[in-house]
């Protein structure tokens, strides 16, 4: 249960800080989009599903929560790459 909370927190911090770190680290100014909230919501939903699945000891929901979290992280990478590309123009 602790890793669900700590991992969710760590990725939430990364999701929040990457737009500020990109300009400083690689001199790319990403163009903000409200779509960047989607991965955060997906990560939160995955964490809630994981906690519920662990409480009910439901292995299928537990696996689904991992897929949801991985999908949210992948979506964030794609959306941030898109925002960085749009910021270069």
Question: What's the layout of helices and strands?
Answer:
Layout: H1 2-26, H2 37-56, H3 59-88
Helix pairs in contact: 1-2, 1-3, 2-3
Can you tag this structure with a few keywords?
3 helices; elongated; 0% strand; mainly alpha; 89 residues
Give an overview in words.
The chain is 84% helix and 0% strand. It has three helices and no strands. The radius of gyration is 15 Å and the shape is elongated. The relative contact order is 0.19.
Estimated radius of gyration: 15 Å
Shape: elongated
Helix content: over 70%
Summed up, the helix count is 3
The helix/strand class is mainly alpha
- The poorly predicted ranges are none
Distance between the termini: 43 Å
Short recap of the structure:
This protein is mainly α and 89 residues long. The protein contains three helices and no strands. The chain has helices spanning 2-26, 37-56, 59-88.
């Amino acid at each position: 249960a602790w890793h669900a909370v700590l991992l969710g927190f760590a990725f939430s911090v990364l999701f929040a800080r990457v737009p500020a770190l990109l300009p400083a680290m690689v001199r790319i100014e990403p163009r903000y989009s409200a779509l960047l909230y989607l991965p955060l919501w997906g990560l939160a939903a995955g964490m809630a599903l994981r906690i519920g699945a662990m409480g009910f000891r439901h292995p299928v929901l537990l696996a689904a929560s991992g897929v949801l979290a991985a999908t949210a992280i992948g979506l964030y990478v794609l959306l941030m790459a898109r925002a960085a590309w749009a910021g270069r123009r």
